[in-house]
Amino acid sequence: MTNMEDRSRPAATVVIVRDRADGPPDILMMERASTMAFAAGALVFPGGAVDAGDHDLAARIDHGLDQDEAAARIAAIRETIEEAGLGIGLLGPVDAATVLRLRDGLQDGVPLRTLLDRHGLGVAFDTLTPFARWHPAPFDLATRIFDTRFYIARAPDGQMATVDTTENVRLFWSSAADTLAQCDAGAAMVIYPTKRNLERLALCANHAALVAHARAYPVEKVQPWQEERGGERHLCIPDHLGYPITSEPMGRVRRA
């Protein structure tokens, strides 16, 4: 294990998908506040660091998963409630009012475990499909190092996403291709991992196709590297993980 990997903090993020009858699926994007230390002003998927409470909840549930994997899925569920007001990955009667109470409780510092018990809810781990895993490369010399697991989940019916106005200042639904077009036009910005993941998400026509695509490729830790290609320095990723574009000139790369 490198020193960077030893210092990294586990994190989880989730691609929330809303199918459309007349086109490619919408994906929930959030714009980070310009004051944030990590990915300031960038478009991101909901998510954040895995905390001790996520591990505590994972340890008391019979889920058949590796404990780190289970804790990461719980973190993705918790962060989505906090940041977007959407109750993904929950077992039991969940409506908009219940999610609001969960969100208020989390913002008041109440552990998710306590809130789920209070409302008679459980965790539906299988509603989150593993999609990818990314970790900064050693040459990045990042001050905030996250080992981030990405998941895919269907948007819940009867709930409306709302921004938290603290870490994130705007949210919107858009197809992956349209979000990339916004960034190409200079109307928005994404960092390198998000861009590569949006390009991959744009390959699929609906949630079911995304799940099938995710399951067709291994989830391996992606650590980009630099390489000379065509006389120009590129930032590269492996070519066997389902990504349609696996390199980008360093002069165009946006980092956190």
Describe the structure in brief.
31% of the residues lie in helices and 27% in strands. The chain has 256 residues and is α+β, with helices and mostly antiparallel strands.
Sheet bearing the most strands, described?
8 strands, mixed
User: N- to C-terminal separation?
Assistant: 23 Å
| Structure class | alpha+beta
Instruction: Indicate the proportion of strand residues.
Output: 25-35%
As a whole number of angstroms, the C-alpha radius of gyration is 18 Å
Continuous helix count:
8
Tally of DSSP β-strands? 13
- Envelope shape: globular
Give the helices and strands as they follow along the chain: HEEEEHHEHHEEEEHHHEEEE
Protein architecture, described:
Helix content is 31%, strand content 27%. It has helices at 3-7, 52-59, 67-84, 96-107, 112-119, 176-184, 192-201, 207-215; strands spanning 9-20, 23-32, 43-44, 47-49, 90-91, 122-123, 129-134, 146-154, 168-174, 221-222, 225-229, 232-236, 247-249. The strands form 3 sheets. Strands 1, 2, 3, 4, 7, 8, 9 and 10 form an 8-stranded mixed beta sheet that branches. Strand 11 and strand 12 form a beta hairpin.
